[in-house]
Amino acid sequence: MVWRSVPEQGSIRALEEFTRKTKDKLEYIRGRALLLRAGGKKGGEVARELGVSRGSVYEWESRYAKSGIDGLRRKYSTGRPPVKKMKAKKIIPELMKKDPKLFGFLKGRWVVRDLAKEIEKETGIGISKTHVERMLQELNLSYKRPKLHVKSDDPNYYRKKREVRSYQRIAPALEKKGF
Q: pTM of the predicted model, to two decimals?
């Protein structure tokens, strides 16, 4: 089957520009399919070349015939609104401004785990650490992972530290032997 209505030269340029500018993979494939069809290829050939079904190629043709380039754009489903995310996004910036010690945490900086715990306390909604990290990125907020720095006046501190570390490495082997 040959494409019923071959696009005009101006619309071919529009299709070429659409495929060149789009950042969406599916939109690119749709535009590419129509360009191949306009070049005279059959629907089955185009489908095999692009790894899609023949029916999809014909569907994209009919959408393009009805709506033009807008018919090729991906339409995202709205779905259910993110209740957890919306409540947490309101709270996170305010929490980040305050000292975690005010909320009973020992650290002087916010840690993702502590943010998740505090959000759960305030909203009653449990949110994972990963979800909190994503929300921090969306809000363009950054956090630092706390590092423990021990300062000691003991002149033998570093020697003792090495000894403890070496013991930690050999302790499992000593326990197996019964020491």
A: 0.44
